[in-house]
Write a structure and sequence with these properties.
Number of helices: 0
Distance between the termini: 40 Å
Largest sheet: 7 strands, mixed
Structural class: mainly beta
Helix content: under 10%
Mean pLDDT: 96
Radius of gyration: 13 Å
Low-confidence stretches: none
Order of helices and strands: EEEEEEEEEEE
Length: 122
């Protein structure tokens, strides 16, 4: 089992930045794909970014050029750097892990964090 805990959410004005962290325990992350998803009120959980390694990353079109996913397997930590935030980015952000792959569909992931709220004011 992999336990994931997100942190770093909060309230920020449009144009500002936040960095989310996901700390993992239970298993080393070296063989796990990692991803960030988000869910706004009344909407389905939405893909944000995924990482199999530092050089294999994918982003939703809505966040390309603004968000960056990174990881340090030795520290069992994944980050999501969010710049130029927009009110449309407001959501609960979740970290997820899947053994030996990094898909974009949330249903493919077995391990999830509790989520952290990001609110962007206009």
């Amino acid at each position: 089992q992999v336990q994931l805990v997100e942190s770093g959410g909060g309230l920020v004005q449009a144009g500002g930045s936040l960095r989310l962290s996901c700390a993992a325990s239970g298993r080393a992350l070296s063989n796990y794909g990692m991803a960030w998803f988000r869910q706004a009120p009344g909407k389905d959980r939405e893909f944000v970014a995924t990482s199999w390694s530092s050089h294999r990353t994918y982003y939703a079109d809505s966040v390309k050029g603004r968000f960056t996913i990174s990881r340090d397997n030795a520290k069992n930590t994944v980050w999501l750097q969010m710049n130029s935030l927009k009110p449309e980015d407001t959501a609960v952000y979740y970290c997820a892990a899947k053994y030996m792959s990094a898909p974009q569909a949330p249903g493919q992931y077995d391990y999830w964090g509790q989520g952290t709220q990001v609110t962007v004011s206009s």
